[in-house]
Design brief:
The chain is of the alpha+beta class and about 425 residues long. The chain has 14 helices and 20 strands. Helix 10 packs antiparallel against helix 11.
């Protein structure tokens, strides 16, 4: 079997594929891998753009480890392979919700947590910050359950699968709530002058700058007492399916064939940006449909560097005359205490650059990466970058603690692969 990720830029052929249906099955796979001198990795649904999930040894597919193990008033323990889409629906049936999440729901719970999926929030962090307990199978075949106050908990929440195979996660949940979503167009030049006030005024801020224009689509989400006023089925289809996927995909395809038209295409897209608002169930507002395949690089910066980074990125695109179809996305999060969280110990801003999958532009990512690394950027673990352990050890204060813990728990590197060799050494 050949494993290929969603973006179709990473693939690998494991020696063996297993679909464990229990923790005991995972333990057996880890013990078998160690005895036979092979490596072992649990994959998710392939939504990472890096090779973080690949293995040439035993690949564990997550489909048999799904569903909820137990419920409590403010906690849910879920098996690692459960897709976020399914978790949202199960929580909704019980009148519960996660406080924050990213916009992709096809990821597994474990895959999203292990690579640092974060969403956007002034006060609420990413998925790893909502974890209250982890269960994982260690390299010696033992099963560890860890919680706050333990080094393994803070290390393994964003652990890249390097410390063990995650089998279950306990997440903090709360009563279901409504979000008031507003979308409106603002000039980038205006946003650059008012970023602090925009962040402080909204619980969740997300904006997209359209290259070759001064236009941004600004999305703000704030809690609302109701009543709900969701978009109609026609409006939801028009925005989420037709405009953001079908029409956008067609524009990308035209731009791929005729790159000179991209600035004009973007100008038309920017002119079409309109105001809208709705009040709906939180996870329906947080999440989005993504059908157009792309490649992505994203960096987390100290928030005070965001304005400079955006200006330099805009100037670089124009100076190099690159033709960029995809918007540049900006999000924010509060500090995190997970050791390898991109937001560890600092209020963070994220700049994400995308390229249409059929027309990769390595120079674009390389140029933006130079800006981000100069400004103390940390690359998203599941998105494209070229940083190695030497660089990462300088921007993560607990990096040496993480690698020391890894040396102790997995001295034979049962859980490693080429990507982990690069980023962890």
């Amino acid at each position: 079997m050949v494993f290929t990720n969603w973006a179709r830029n990473q693939s690998g052929t494991p020696a063996e594929v297993r679909t464990p249906a229990s923790v005991a099955d995972v333990v057996r796979a880890v013990v078998d891998a160690a005895a036979s001198g092979r490596r072992v990795r649990m994959v998710g649904t392939g939504h990472s753009f890096t090779g973080v999930a690949l293995t040439d040894g035993i690949m564990l597919r997550p489909h048999g480890l799904t569903g909820v193990r137990s419920w409590a008033d403010d906690r849910v323990t879920v098996l690692a392979g459960t897709p976020l889409r399914v978790l949202n629906e199960l929580l909704g049936e019980r009148g519960l919700a996660l406080s924050n999440m990213g916009d992709i729901t096809e990821q597994t719970v474990a895959g999203a947590i292990q690579t640092g999926t974060h969403g956007t929030g002034r006060d609420s962090g990413g998925l790893a910050d909502q974890v209250t307990e982890l269960e994982l199978v260690l390299a010696d075949g033992s099963v560890a359950t860890v919680g706050p106050g333990e080094d393994l908990f803070d290390a393994a929440r964003v652990g890249l699968g390097a410390l063990g195979v995650l089998t279950a996660v306990t997440l903090r949940v709360e009563p279901a709530f409504l979000l008031h979503n507003r979308r409106h167009r603002l000039p980038l030049s205006e946003i650059l002058g008012s970023l602090d006030s925009l962040v402080s005024a909204n619980e969740h801020l997300d904006f997209f700058w359209v290259p070759h224009t001064d236009a941004c689509l600004v999305k703000t989400n704030n809690r609302d007492p109701g009543p709900a006023s969701p978009p109609s089925a026609v409006k939801r289809w028009m925005d989420n399916v037709f405009l953001e996927n079908t029409a956008f995909g067609a524009a990308c395809a035209v731009g791929a064939r005729l790159p000179g038209l991209i600035p004009r295409i973007n100008a038309v897209s920017a002119a079409a940006l309109g105001d809208s608002e709705s009040v709906d169930t939180s996870y329906k507002i947080f999440t989005a449909r993504r059908d157009v395949r792309f490649l992505e690089m994203e960096y987390a910066l100290p928030r005070h560097h965001l304005t400079q980074a955006l200006r330099e990125t805009r100037d670089l695109i124009e100076r190099m005359n690159w033709k960029i179809t995809f918007p540049v996305e900006v999000r924010v999060t509060p500090p995190s205490d997970a050791w390898l969280s991109t937001a560890y110990d600092r209020a963070s801003a994220y700049i994400a650059c995308h390229i249409y999958r059929p027309t990769p532009n390595p120079a674009y990512f390389e140029g933006v990466e130079e800006i981000m690394t100069r400004l103390e950027g940390r690359p998203h673990w599941g998105k494209l970058h070229t940083r190695d352990a030497f660089y990462l050890s300088k921007v993560y204060p607990r990096f040496a603690d993480f690698t020391a813990l890894r040396d102790r728990l997995d001295p034979r590197r049962l859980f490693t692969n080429e990507y982990l060799d690069l980023v962890l050494g």
